[in-house]
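Hi all, posting the design record for the shared folder.

TITLE: backbone redesign
STEP: 1 of 1
STRUCTURE INPUT:
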């Protein structure tokens, strides 16, 4: 996708601070961290959002969650816990229309549902 910032990051056209990479995902540090640990797991396939996950692309979502477990251990937040967030669409607060999962941790997070 030509104008997608996360595709550009995956293709190394835009720099990022990567902490993990495999065939399916790239995990980078969020540029505007909302917690001591704030990472983004980007699928290497351009999928706009959770709304279009189906049997043709769900492997990427599954692999993203496999990566979450590895990345949390690597970041040292697996014991105390963390939050995995996906924002979908405008009401969900999604600003980058490329499927990604936020990993937030490193402190006790407030419960905010709305
Ligand atoms: P969302 O609002 O769920 O779509 O999340 C998008 C996230 O991407 C935000 O937390 C931004 O801070 C983050 N972000 C945007 N541009 C970059 C970038 N170039 N490198 C790292 N994180 C970014
Ligand atoms: Zn993209």
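Okay, here is what came back for every position:
SEQUENCE:
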């Amino acid at each position: 996708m030509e104008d997608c910032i996360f595709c550009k990051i995956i293709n190394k056209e835009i720099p990022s601070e990567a902490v993990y990479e495999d065939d399916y995902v790239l995990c980078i540090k969020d540029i505007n961290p909302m917690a001591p640990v704030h990472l983004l797991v980007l699928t290497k396939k351009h999928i706009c959002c959770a709304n279009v996950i189906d049997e043709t692309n769900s492997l990427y979502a599954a692999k993203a969650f496999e990566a979450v477990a590895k990345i949390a251990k690597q970041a040292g937040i697996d014991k105390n816990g963390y939050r995995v967030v996906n924002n979908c669409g405008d009401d969900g607060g999604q600003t980058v229309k490329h499927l990604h999962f936020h990993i937030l941790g490193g402190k006790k997070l407030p419960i905010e549902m709305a």
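COMMENT: The first helix runs from residue 5 to 10.
Let me know if anyone wants the other runs.
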